[in-house]
Specification:
Belongs to the DegT/DnrJ/EryC1 family. L-glutamine:2-deoxy-scyllo-inosose/scyllo-inosose aminotransferase subfamily. This is Glutamine--scyllo-inositol aminotransferase. Pfam families: DegT_DnrJ_EryC1. By secondary structure, the chain is α/β, with parallel strands linked by helices. It is 41% helix and 13% strand. The protein has two domains: 241 residues, Aspartate Aminotransferase, domain 2, CATH 3.40.640.10; 131 residues, Aspartate Aminotransferase, domain 1 (Alpha-Beta Complex), CATH 3.90.1150. It has a seven-stranded mixed sheet with strand order 1-9-8-5-4-2-3, sandwiched between helices. Strands 7-6-10 form a three-stranded antiparallel sheet, with no helix packed on it. The protein is globular. The two termini are 37 Å apart.
Length: 387
């Protein structure tokens, strides 16, 4: 099976994990700190604002708590987003206000965000679809002007930038995902960024039971009764560990080669599919923007999209669609929203396999099967319409 997502790991990651085992310190420790420091350098921010956690989903829930989002508040977010973001907001009792996205880029424009704002808007939560930055710089300016908090779900954007500024650092809080399907993987895990220094300190407490100190061992050097508890907040345990961090350190060093390979695969798809009638290729990011190339998506006639996906699966090629519209989820109570860009893209978009482990022959196979299927299914659809 040619998978749509797949991690790239090997001997370097195994060696790093072996070193952790040999150290006999498996939990939140020195490698976690080093990973935070190196990822902060990758972002261009102070490491005191960065925290390695057990998942980006935990980061989304923590973000709503840090920003005090709750009943009476409204949070604007694109409907084309991951369910974890919707759950994080809905669980607070705040009202989700879904905005539309551009049908081609799958990202909201600043105009989409502005149209959804109300006097009760407390925060905006955006996703960088497929690693493309979108209008994040303009959206961040709008939020600052209106006194609204900005949360960046940068799960797809580990190497994405706008004019040299890392996605995830434009807003107030951001999180990156390192799960087994991402560009940089640690098995499970994520990184949290908090702009405000006081909120960053509170995030660290909330991520470890609300305790002022992260371990009794470290407190033993400064307190004669280091086992006593100093609870500042009612937190939980969502910190990362040294096993995952050791993998992350290796993966972070390999990240430039991963992104370069993914870019090359996207370019090859573009060359192979450029002349296929009925296949719309993804737009290139505008000048000054760089993508993490997490997704490669094509857009087809809605009446054949699902059939094409089935044809590809029959040939051992797994494709998918992300993300199903959240405003259609009954639990969120928002199915009355009219979001034409979101609804159109949810019916015509298909994600092709994209991961750095793909070789050129596999890419050529995907393109060839896609071409054949689209040509056949399009002809059949035309024939049915004529009859």
């Amino acid at each position: 099976m040619i998978n749509v997502f797949q991690p790239t790991t090997g001997d370097e990651e195994l060696a790093a994990v072996s070193e952790v085992f040999a150290s006999n310190w498996l939990g939140h420790g020195p490698r976690t700190k080093e990973f935070e420091e190196r990822f902060a350098a990758h972002l261009g921010v102070d490491p005191g604002h960065v925290l390695f956690i057990n998942s980006a989903t935990s980061g989304l829930f923590l973000a709503t708590e840090l920003l005090g989002i709750g009943p009476g508040d409204e949070v604007v977010m694109p409907s084309a987003s991951f369910v974890a973001a919707g759950n994080a907001v809905a669980s607070t009792g705040a009202r989700l206000v879904f905005c539309d996205v551009d049908e081609r880029t799958m990202n909201p424009t600043v105009a989409h965000i502005e149209q959804a704002l109300t006097p009760d808007t407390t925060a905006v939560l955006i996703l960088h679809y497929g690693g493309h930055p979108g209008d994040v710089a303009a959206i961040a300016r709008l939020c600052r002007e209106r006194g609204i908090r900005l949360i960046e779900d940068a799960a797809c954007a580990v190497a994405s930038k706008v004019d040299g500024v890392a996605c995830g650092t434009f807003g107030d809080v951001a999180m990156w995902s390192f799960d087994a399907m991402k560009v940089l993987v640690t098995g499970d895990g994520g990184m949290l960024y908090v702009r405000d220094p006081e909120l960053a300190l509170r995030a660290k407490r909330l991520a470890y039971h609300g305790l002022e100190q992260s371990s009794g061992f470290s407190a033993a050097r400064v307190s004669h009764r280091w086992w006593e508890l100093n609870v500042k907040d009612f937190g939980r345990r969502i910190v990362g560990n040294d096993i995952a961090a050791a993998i992350g350190l290796v993966q972070l060093a390999r990240l430039p080669e991963f992104v370069a390979r993914r870019r090359a695969i996207g370019d090859l798809y573009g060359q192979l599919l450029a002349d296929v009638d009925g296949v719309v290729l993804p737009p290139e990011p505008p000048e000054g923007q760089t993508s993490s190339h997490y997704f490669y998506w094509v857009q087809l006639e809605p009446e054949i999209r699902d059939q094409v996906a089935a044809d590809l699966l029959e040939e051992g090629i797994y494709t998918t669609f992300r993300y199903p519209p959240l405003h259609k989820v009954p639990a969120y109570g928002s199915d009355h929203a009219e979001l034409p860009g979101t609804e159109a893209s949810s019916e015509n978009t298909l994600l092709l396999p994209l991961h750095q482990g793909l070789d050129d022959e596999e890419v050529r196979k995907v393109a060839a099967v896609l071409r054949k299927s689209v040509e056949y299914r399009s002809a059949s659809a035309r024939s049915r319409r004529v009859r």
